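Protocol step 4 of 6: structure prediction from sequence.
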Amino acid sequence: MGERSLRRRAAIWFLAICAAYLALAYLAAPEFWTFRERGFRDRRFEMVTHTPQGIPGDPINVGLVGTEREVVHAFAIAGWDTADAVTLRTAIDIGESVLFSRPYPDAPMSRLLFDGRAQDLAFEKPVGDSADRRHHVRFWQTDTVGDDGRPLWLGAASFDRGVGLSHDTGAITHHIGPDIDAERDFLIGDLNAAGLLASTGDMGGIGATRTGRNGGGDPYFTDGKAVIGVLKQPQ
């Protein structure tokens, strides 16, 4: 068998393996989880997010009271960036950022669902030169309002410690750090240090656990509370 024929066979095998991985990680495995968690959209969510396939995701551990404009303005003042939408272009950009250590402070975040809806707002604060390590949070506006009539936003904050393969589907994803309480406190601390919070309090969340796992299969531990910050109103 000639060298040219061997190269052709190797190329075919390589493409076949790539196709098999993509089919397993992005089609078969998500469909399995959708079937396994069928009916999750009909259940009331209790302070935990889910992936679009119904896998339990990051828990709700933070909240803000304020208008959408006030929330966006507060994170800008505190030095956080608004995440880009997920598109083919931004997916390529974040891949290049991770592979070549290029800054991408507005890197997109995957969709998580809370109460059946994808996040309304998402913010991040990079650590280092690439998008593989970052503080990040997703927020959902709720129907609840504070004493001043402004809406309550509930969020899931965690720290992306690196990029790898999902433990549940095999798809490429960020892996989170296990101490999500530290990330919650970091976010509230940033907003407080910038003089943006009028007050803080806490409310019940998912409850204390040391055995939680998110949508990528990453373990986390938490005291189970959500810290709520009330944004100062413009004078």
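Step 5 (inspection) to follow. The helical segments are 3-36, 68-77, 88-100, 180-193.
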